[in-house]
Amino acid sequence: MSRQPANRSKRLPDQVDEILIESTEEFIPCPDNAYLAREYEDHLCYWQGHADHAAAASYGASLADLLLFARHMAAYRMISDRTAGKEVLDLGCFLGYGSRLLSMTAKTVTAVDMDESAVAYARGSTSASNVNFVNGDATSLGFRSGAFDAVIAFQLLEHMSGSGIDDLLDGALEVLRPGGELFLVTPNRTSRLMPGQKPFNPEHVREFNAGELRRTLAPHGSFRIRGVTAPAWIVEVETARVQRSAFNAYLKIPAARALKKLGISPMALKTGKMSPVLLSTRGSISRNRKILSWIRSSSPMILATRQWTCSPSA
User: Fold this and answer.
1) Of the four listed, 10, 109, 238, 310, which is most buried by Cβ atoms within 10 Å?
2) How far is CA 309 from the centre of its chain?
3) In a domain? residue 216
């Protein structure tokens, strides 16, 4: 599939001259929509069986959740041609949906996650013989130097502190072979958060724009940083999901966090019930499956890549 030409006229506000953001509306699909539907249903089944997990309330059978999942899958699809026939390390693999996708063309995929239940679920959901799931910490790898042709860390940087990111990148570059590539994907805070706003996702330590990401990665070499966007209708759905506004950023979300510390649910103030309340609107999986036929791209995110050109031991 031919790619749309990069739009090199658009720059992020705090970006230095050599860091450009590329914009494309090309859809990088999964092998077929039926495959994406199966993986999404597997994703929902996991969360339905782990309702006590802190993040479970964030997921449900809705258009916004489906597009969020499709964006995660699309990121793996974007690099699948560059991992074909190679030995790949997938850090923060979680349920292994991206690892399974890459295994269709990669020589081997070693998938690592520190969540024991997720790794166990991934093993039970995977029949491919060239995927190996490992329960481990992405910041403390035990693999030999130069063991992999490609290392992937998608949706992981935002969960880490500065020292954790340094440990992750040092370890990833150590296990890369000369000429290997490191691929990183993280949310673009510019499309999600107001200036000075903390991430609304409680599991996110920090979110980056392109300039901040460049400065964070700079001690570890030169990375190519790209912005990946989507057609307007998908951007609208994602914008509604993250509810980016000054009111939410500076009043509603901080107030909700303060109430939570007091053991009071914000919804309790409306219902008069002083007990934890969670309301969500969820559609059916069959209805959402129809949406798959007209998904066209991923939601806003930042992709950073680096080719390792010298010996990891140098």
Assistant:
1) 109
2) 26
3) yes
